[in-house]
Amino acid sequence: MNTTNSIKTDELLFPTYKKWNIAFEQASGSTITDQTGKTYIDMMAGIGVVNLGHGHPAVLEAVEKQLQKGWHASNFFHYEGQEQTAKQLTSHSCADLVFFANSGAEANEAAIKLARKHTGKKKIISFLQSFHGRTFGTMAATGQESIHQGFGPMLEGFEYVPYNDVKALENAIDDETAAVMLEPVQGEGGVIPADDSFLQAAETLAENAGALLICDEIQTGLGRTGAFFAHQLSGIEPDIITTAKALGNGFPTGAVIGKAHLKDAFGPGSHGTTFGGNPLAMAAASATLDTLINENWSQKAKDKGEALLKELQERLASAEVVKEVRGKGMMVGIELNEPAANTIGKLQEKGVLVLAAGPNVLRLLPPLTIDWEMLKEATALIEETLKR
Ligand SMILES: Cc1ncc(COP(=O)(O)O)c(C=O)c1O
């Protein structure tokens, strides 16, 4: 394997990430090249971020143009890019008002605050194996003990119930509940799609309890699962949607999109951010959304994702190490009956980048724009690796 051992960031950085032995040099379209000149097929898109591929020309041009005009004034100013981006997000969702943040966790943090402030209640129900972020609020919302460890006491008021279990949700929800918070497909938890009937029941149960439904679409949103937002495939209308990752196609930005009736809860002085919604992020987001919408990438992701899933299911049907291949759109999980880390390393040697989701699942989140030839090359290498 080509290695880049000269890079020793482990001496200078907190080791929060177990870094791979790959030093990033540059990225283009659906490939990443390291400092030794080795090129990889990118089947992870920066953890579901560059949905339009690396260095998309429309996004690049919009950011470069904005750089010349200025990149910070503050949220006291009207920023045309915020209006534009908010219009794109609200006209393609069931919600009406936007708060811009810098990341997924910040968007979820704002959503939790909005739900508590609006309802005047504190209980938030989320799900086992969920992932909502690393801040205190979003860590508390995350239904994974390993993520809480060592950081206690957790923010109080959070309850976790089994995912896709309507009865359990019915038992947990009551008049004290401010919100039900869920991912339409659990990403970090193992690429687990929610059943339509579960999402529909969550909507009804929340409404009956006077609670808000929050859909965390940070990983699933913006075309990834074959719809602009994944929950739209089940015909539900959450009160709050959060998005981030793909919003700026790699430029850090996030957003909370909420229904109009929540407006008063986020009045002046209630919540804020210095950098959220800055002109550069908005230029990137607006160009990304324009491209995603005008070129119909949600539908393309649906079609390509179905073909990818079928291809992988066929190729891996006889691989003993594979338990299940599942997914939605261009979000695919390959569940193994052994730890995924070993396979990830072997695939890197062959020039393919994939992620883990939980201990045993390989997670594929390629750019939606990846061409079929490259996808086939990657699936062949995955087959070769898993059928040792
Ligand atoms: C569903 C979901 N919510 C929230 C987050 C947190 O986003 P960020 O890392 O931008 O804070 C992630 C990140 O992986 C995510 O997948």
UniProtKB/TrEMBL annotation:
GO biological process, one term: L-arginine biosynthetic process
Entry's Gene Ontology molecular function annotations: identical protein binding; N2-acetyl-L-ornithine:2-oxoglutarate 5-aminotransferase activity; pyridoxal phosphate binding
GO cellular component: cytoplasm
EC code(s) of this entry: 2.6.1.11
SUPFAM superfamilies reported in the protein's UniProt record: PLP-dependent transferases
PROSITE patterns for this protein: AA_TRANSFER_CLASS_3
Amino acids binding N(2)-acetyl-L-ornithine: 134, 273
Binding site for pyridoxal 5'-phosphate: 104-105, 131, 216-219, 274
Cofactor(s) annotated in UniProt: pyridoxal 5'-phosphate
NCBIfam families assigned to the protein according to its UniProt record, in alphabetical order: argD, PRK01278.1, PRK02936.1
Protein name: Acetylornithine aminotransferase
Organism: Alteribacillus persepolensis
Upper classification of the organism: Bacteria, Bacillati, Bacillota, Bacilli, Bacillales
